[in-house]
Amino acid sequence: MIYSIHYDLKKPGQNYDALHEAIKNCGAWWHYLDSTWLVDTNLNANGIWNNLSPHIDKNDFFLVIGVTNDYQGWLPKDAWDWINNRSSKMAA
Length: 92
Hints:
The chain has one domain: Alpha-Beta Plaits, CATH 3.30.70. The chain contains three helices and four strands; from the N terminus they run βαββαβα. It has helices at 17-24, 45-52, 77-84; strands at 2-8, 28-33, 36-40, 61-66. The chain has a four-stranded antiparallel beta sheet, with helices on both faces. Strand 2 and strand 3 form a beta hairpin. It is globular. The N and C termini lie close together (11 Å).
């Protein structure tokens, strides 16, 4: 399934490289927006959270949510290709 990962990282100067690597390790990923990732994974939202939560601070905000086939936006062609090629893996 495709999940959207969004975050607002609150601690100034914090190095979140480990978080980014943990996201990449969840499955095939897309990252065209600063604080948003899409991940094509066999994990569920709780499994993703369990993998990522050790890499964030308690004052950060975080959302993991399934992506549906109802989407629209303004993105580069590469981004739409990634999304559209995985539309069969999205929630109804």
